[in-house]
Design brief:
Layout: H1 2-27, H2 34-42, H3 46-152, H4 156-170, H5 178-211, H6 213-233, H7 245-251, H8 263-267, H9 293-304, H10 308-326, H11 337-360, H12 367-389, H13 395-414, H14 420-451, E1 458-459, H15 462-471, H16 477-481, E2 486-487, H17 493-512, H18 519-546, H19 553-568, H20 570-581, H21 595-622, H22 640-655, H23 661-683, H24 693-711, H25 728-739, H26 742-748, H27 761-781, H28 786-814
Antiparallel strand pairs: 1-2
Function: Component of the exocyst complex involved in the docking of exocytic vesicles with fusion sites on the plasma membrane.
Pfam families: EXOC6_Sec15_N (PF20651), Sec15_C (PF04091)
Protein name: Exocyst complex component
């Protein structure tokens, strides 16, 4: 029973499932019915489902049949009306066909016209498109044609601008045309061509600027000189901005129009043709001579091409090479001023160009580059000037060189270049200039001293007197009162030397001009140079004259007088320097003139030379002495040579009237002492081995003549018998032998008040031995006279005794 219930339950479930599947089949889309059918086949009740499906299909068929039966009459009516409509439709079709045939026939011409219109519209559209394309291509072609024209006329920078427009603006619009591709391929070649041609123009410019640097520098230096002259003229007038006027002129040379349409401006390589305009009142600006457009064009071209750094490096490298060439001086530069001028002109021209490039371009050259070049130029220029100026022996050339260096420095200083080292170097050249001046003035002084007659200057009129006084500061009231003709105490070399010293001071002053030195520095420089002139040059010249072999006593006396007056004039030279430098001598650190010392030294040398000369003259007269030392005759007058000598001394000392008293007295005393010494040497000469008392008497007469000369006072100022003391040694010696006063001599020897205090035992012994030899020789010759032998023998014994005592004195003196 349970089994039956279970079967009944399963049957109900299966029926419900089949019902559900059938509903799904009825309601589900055909595409999705597969899973539903699969569930049927997967189950075990397939047959029963099919039965139910058949039952469901029959039910639906019955419903369809019922529905069709219900709507059948309406369907028949519709079919009937449709058949009626088919007839009417056929009529309409025929009418439409007829109408279409008529329309086709009537519209055939219209279609032909429309076809023609269509072709015309197509052609018109093509033409319009062609015109548009041509209008798009024409600017490209025009720009390219313009580019070729600019290249042909060498207007490279405009050509480069045109090339840029062509490449970036026009060609992209027509890039699909073949001719555009040809143009695009040709653009790099055109750029290289422009680059090469512009570089060639730059090279031409650099070559021209190198050749014409001296002309540019000459013009700049002329401008500087003109401006300096103008400043000197209006020194006391206020001026605004005039200090660098010519630099301003230099920077307003011209504004080069880079894109100028003038072929001439494009082809110009650097230097404009400017004739010499020496006669023109206005000197053209230094950079008016230069067309810098090649540099500007090349710079712009390389900047546009992205190769500015390459261009800058090339330009700087080439200019450095040119700078080294410019700074190399010619080997013979020192021979003429033109050599120095051309050298300076080239340097100035070089830096004027670089300075203009610095201020008119942005970055082509910079201040560091200019400063580096200037440092190199400054060191090489100073080295060259040191070397070449050392060869200059002409002070005028050195002075002109200094002025040229100052102008050179002032010119470059206006352009902003530091020139302090040049002025420092000028101080070195100043020392050289002083040396050349000293050499020149050495010759001048030598000529003055050689041509002088060493006689007082005679004047016969007031005009001549004033002329001499105007040349040399001399005041003498007594001389002024004397009638004409009269004489100045000094010779012509005094005013000449004085004026030449002033000329030397003027020459030193000329060098100090424009060196930017203070008055104190100028004064110090002049005083030091003048001291060198006095202490070295003039002193040497005077010493050479004084030491000259053929110099006479008259000339020496005149030199002493001249140097005395020149010494007095030193204060006027001090005043002269003070007047031209406006520096008071009382100022601290002011150098004093050493002229007084110079002239004192010269005077002392002349005095010594007078003493020496007098002694030489005395020696010359003494060489004429011819004593017969063996004579027995007693003379009654002085020797002739000595009389002549005394006459010479008297005439010589008469010339000493203008000498200072001490000089004349010293000269006279020196002469007397030398004469006394020479006479003593003559008496004691070793060659004279024997002498007689008669010869001694003659010698005594000569000494008495000398003493008479001393007593006569040849030179005023001696006290009583001071001059006679020069002969005291001779007098006491001769008195001892002539009076034969040996007992007194030997008894009083060594006492301060003895009669023969000046007689030396050695001298007395020497002379006694000479007399003794003569007496012995005479006794041998006269031994035939027996009556004389005893007296001779006694005297000889006395001589021997005295000689023995004298030897004892000599021995005790030495011990």
């Amino acid at each position: 029973m349970e089994r039956g219930k279970m079967a009944e339950a399963e049957s109900l479930e299966t029926a419900a499932e089949h019902e559900r599947i059938l509903r799904e089949i009825e309601s589900t889309d055909t595409a999705c019915i597969g899973p539903t059918l699969r569930s049927v086949y997967d189950g075990e009740e397939h047959g029963r489902f099919m039965e139910k499906l058949e039952t469901r299909i029959r039910n639906h068929d019955r419903e369809i049949e019922k529905m069709c039966n219900f709507h059948y009459q309406g369907f028949v009516d519709s079919i009937t009306e449709l058949l009626k409509v088919r007839g009417e439709a056929q009529k309409l079709k025929n009418q439409v066909t007829d109408t279409n045939r008529k329309l086709q026939h009537e519209g055939k011409e219209l279609v032909i016209a429309m076809e023609e219109l269509k072709q015309c519209r197509l052609q018109q559209r093509n033409i319009s498109a062609t015109v548009d394309k041509l209008m798009l291509c024409l600017p490209v072609l025009e720009m390219y044609s313009k580019l070729r024209d600019q290249m042909k006329t060498k207007r490279h920078y405009p050509a480069l601008k045109t090339l840029e427009h062509l490449e970036h603006t026009y060609l992209p619009q027509v890039s699909h045309y073949r001719f555009c591709k040809v143009m695009v391929d040709n653009i790099p070649k055109l750029r290289e061509e422009i680059k090469d041609v512009s570089m060639s123009d730059l090279k031409d410019f650099l070559e021209s600027i190198r050749k014409h640097s001296d002309k540019i520098g000459e013009t700049a230096m002329k401008q500087a000189q003109q401006q300096r002259n103008l400043d000197n003229i209006i020194l006391q007038q206020p001026r605004i901005g005039s200090k660098r006027k010519f630099k301003k002129d230099a920077y307003t040379i011209f504004d080069t129009e880079i894109e100028s349409t003038s072929p001439k401006s494009e082809q110009d390589s650097g230097i404009l043709d400017v004739e010499d305009e020496e006669d023109d009142e206005e000197i053209p600006g230094a950079q008016d001579l230069v067309d810098f457009s090649p540099v500007y064009r090349c710079l712009h071209i390389y900047s546009v091409l992205g190769a500015r750094e390459t261009f800058e490096n090339y330009y700087r490298k080439q200019r450095r090479k040119q700078a080294r060439l410019v700074l190399q001086p010619p080997s013979n530069m020192h021979e003429t001023l033109d050599g120095y001028r051309k050298y300076f002109n080239q340097i100035v021209g070089f830096f004027v160009v670089e300075d203009h490039i610095l201020h008119t371009t942005q970055g082509l050259v910079n201040r560091a580059y200019i400063d580096e070049l200037w440092e190199m130029a400054l060191s090489k220029t100073i080295a060259a000037l040191r070397t070449h100026s050392s060869y200059c022996s002409d002070p005028n050339l050195v002075l002109d060189l200094k002025n040229l260096i100052v102008l050179f420095a002032d010119t470059l200083q206006v352009y902003g270049f530091p020139v302090n080292q040049l002025f420092d170097m000028l101080l070195e050249i100043r020392d050289q200039y002083s040396e050349t001046l000293l050499k020149k003035w050495a010759g001048i002084f030598r000529n003055i001293l050689d041509s002088d007659n060493y006689s007082p200057i005679p004047v016969t009129s007031e005009e001549m007197y004033k002329k001499v006084v105007g040349q040399f500061p001399f005041q003498d009231t007594e001389l002024e009162k004397q009638p004409f003709p009269k004489k100045f105490p000094f010779s012509e070399f005094v005013p000449k030397v004085y004026n030449q010293i002033k000329e030397f001071i003027y020459a030193c002053l000329k060098f100090s001009e424009d060196l930017h030195l203070s008055s104190t520095e100028v004064d110090d420089m002049i005083r030091k140079s003048t001291n060198l002139l006095l202490t070295r040059t003039l002193s040497n010249s005077l010493q050479n004259v004084i030491k000259r072999k053929n110099i006479g006593l008259t000339e020496l006396v005149q030199i002493i007088i001249n140097t005395t007056h020149l010494e007095k004039s030193c204060k006027y030279l001090e005043e002269f320097i003070t007047n031209i430098t406006n520096v008071l001598p009382e100022t601290v650190h002011t150098t004093k003139l050493y002229g007084t010392t110079t002239f004192k030294d010269a005077r002392h040398a002349a005095e010594e030379e007078i003493y020496t000369n007098l002694n030489q003259k005395i020696d010359q007269f003494l060489q004429l002495a011819d004593y017969d030392w063996m004579t027995g005759d007693l003379g009654n007058k002085a020797s002739d040579y000595l009389v002549d000598l005394i006459a010479f001394l008297r005439s010589t000392f008469a010339v000493f009237t203008h000498l200072p008293g001490k000089v004349a007295q010293t000269a006279c005393m020196s002469a007397c002492k030398h004469l006394a010494t020479s006479l003593m040497q003559l008496l004691l000469e070793a060659e004279v081995r024997q002498l007689t008392l008669g010869a001694l008497q003659q010698f005594n007469l000569d000494v008495r003549e000398c003493e008479q000369f001393a007593r006569s006072g040849p030179v005023p100022g001696f006290q009583e018998d001071t001059l006679q003391l020069a002969f005291i040694d001779l007098r006491q010696l001769l008195d001892l032998f002539i009076q034969w006063d040996w007992s007194t001599y030997l008894a009083d020897y060594g006492q301060p008040n003895c009669k023969y205090l000046r007689v030396n035992p050695v001298t007395a012994l020497t002379l006694l031995e000479k007399i003794s030899r003569e007496m012995k020789d005479t006794s041998r010759k006269n031994n035939m006279f027996a009556q004389f032998r005893k007296n001779e023998r006694d005297k000889q014994k006395l001589i021997d005794t005295v000689a023995k005592q004298l030897r004892g004195l000599v021995s005790s003196h030495h011990s």
